[in-house]
UniProtKB/TrEMBL annotation:
This is Pyridoxal-dependent decarboxylase. Pfam families: Pyridoxal_deC. Belongs to the group II decarboxylase family. Its cofactor is pyridoxal 5'-phosphate. It comes from Saccharothrix mutabilis subsp. mutabilis. InterPro entries: Aromatic_deC (IPR010977), PyrdxlP-dep_de-COase (IPR002129), PyrdxlP-dep_Trfase (IPR015424), PyrdxlP-dep_Trfase_major (IPR015421), PyrdxlP-dep_Trfase_small (IPR015422). It comes from the Bacteria. Keywords: Decarboxylase, Lyase, Pyridoxal phosphate. The keyword Lipid metabolism does not apply.
Length: 456
């Protein structure tokens, strides 16, 4: 064995303990750490002889650690990014320590069954108990899996199997949506259907929610089955399509209903907002991203479907050492990846540790913080809210200055991190609350940073 590696093996308890102390210091300082620090790259050559764990940790601390964003902290409001609760961090560390591949029961049955239990728990949490599912890397792959099943369903309606005959056998495809997320276009590109198959349907006035009447008109003009991508929480304004109305519409027109509920699905946890996802249980496929509002470490998402048979048809990977899929197929027959990290362990720890009530409190507190910031900004000269604060995102514009300049000053302050968008043709900023740590004090600091960045 390489002598440096052998030395680290002999000192493994100390390696892990040192890492624990280092990580604890990082997490304890998240509240004071610059939210988005500047980084100066200093590329170096691959070492011929390594410095062991101690040398690597020292070099990391010297060259990289100070430049890492406090994206797990309470004032990182860009994109829709959660942090990582204590139990989720522990679960993630143990996933690395046990190093399981839950794709097959062979040699990893406990890991496989833990993932199955976690998926069932999540299905109950989101009210889609009749669905099966699996863990994937994020919302993009969750949407990819759902739309792959939709593609196979389209083939089924036309008497072909795309999984066997290829996408050319399918013919022309139409995907209808009011405000599809960019990952939907990316998934369609990867699936060979193409970004151009998306046909945008008008949305309600001053909304991002699809106009169901307009959608019905389009469905009546399209021959053959189509795919409808619905939103349970748009990125800019967290708007929700009327899922129950779409389910009723599906009774009259043949379409596959895929719901992108990447973070809006968490509305199911709140008594005040659960009505927004009424009808989710009737969707054919559902995307939920867990490293957003479940606050587990990257990367983690889940996909749900009512048609596991189609999922096996698309993703089966039969080989002598894997075997054929059974009535209760292994995950190797259900997901794009053969080799998969046990992502479910961090989510299992989070759910086992904090349960429904703990995660409900996080969701409702984040909503309260978004409302708090929205109310503060609504009363500030030179700032305009572009939409009501429906859930956990505040979308706003500023007068008399370029949005990019204001946002650069906010992010450069180290107090907060926001991301840009364009809503209804208006350049804007968004503040997305999904971190379990965020408090009134944090929101007030974010507001103060925004006010300070406004033009005089």
């Amino acid at each position: 064995m390489d002598p440096v590696l052998a030395a680290d093996l002999a000192a493994l308890p100390d390696v892990l303990d040192t890492t624990r102390r280092y990580a604890a210091d990082v997490l304890a300082g998240l509240g004071d750490r610059p939210v988005s620090p500047a980084v100066t790259a200093d590329p170096r050559a691959l070492p011929v002889v390594g410095g062991g764990f101690a040398g690597a940790l020292a070099e990391f601390g010297e060259r990289w650690a100070d430049g890492f964003a406090a994206s797990a902290g309470p004032r990182y409001l860009g994109f829709v990014t959660g942090g990582a609760t204590p139990a989720a961090v522990a679960g993630d560390w143990l996933a690395g320590a046990f190093d399981q591949n839950p794709s097959s029961r062979s040699g990893a049955e406990a890991a496989t069954e833990l993932e199955r239990e976690t998926v069932r728990w999540l299905a109950e949490l989101f009210g889609v108990d009749g669905h099966t599912g699996a863990f994937v890397s994020g919302a993009t792959m969750s949407n990819f899996v759902g739309l792959a099943l939709a593609r196979e369903w389209l083939g089924e309606q036309r008497g072909v199997s795309v999984a066997e005959q290829g996408v050319a056998a399918l013919g022309e495809v139409t995907v209808l949506s009011g405000s599809p997320h960019s990952s939907v276009y990316k998934a369609l590109s990867m699936l060979g259907l193409g970004r151009g198959c998306v046909r945008l349907v008008p949305t309600l006035a001053e909304r991002e929610a699809v106009d169901v009447g307009a959608l019905e008109g389009v469905l009546g003009s399209v021959s053959g089955p189509v795919v409808v991508v619905a939103n349970a929480g748009t990125v800019n304004t967290v708007d929700f399509d009327d899922l129950r109305a779409l389910v009723r519409l599906r009774e009259r027109y043949p379409f596959w209903l895929h719901v992108d509920a990447a973070f809006g699905g968490f509305a199911a946890l709140s008594g005040e907002h659960a009505h927004l996802v009424d009808g989710l249980a009737e969707a054919d496929s559902v995307c939920v991203d867990l490293h957003k509002w479940l606050n587990v470490p990257y990367d983690s998402a889940v996909q749900f479907t009512r048609r596991r048979d189609l999922q096996v048809r698309v993703f089966q990977n039969a080989a002598a050492y894997l075997g054929l899929p059974t009535d209760d197929p292994d995950f190797v027959h259900l997901t794009p990846q053969n080799s998969r990290r046990l992502r479910a362990l961090a989510a299992w720890f989070a759910l086992a540790a904090y349960g429904r009530e703990g995660h409900r409190e996080v969701v409702e507190r984040c909503v309260a913080q978004a409302r708090r910031l929205g109310a503060l900004l609504d009363g500030t000269a030179g700032v305009r809210l572009l939409a009501p604060v429906r859930l956990n995102v505040v979308c706003f514009a500023v007068d008399g200055a370029e949005v990019g300049e204001v946002m650069e000053r906010v992010n450069g302050s180290g107090e907060a991190f926001l991301t840009p968008t364009v809503y209804a043709g208006q350049p804007a900023m968004r503040a997305a609350f999904s971190n379990w740590r965020t408090t009134d004090e944090d929101t007030d600091r974010v507001y103060a940073a925004i006010v300070k960045a406004l033009p005089n």
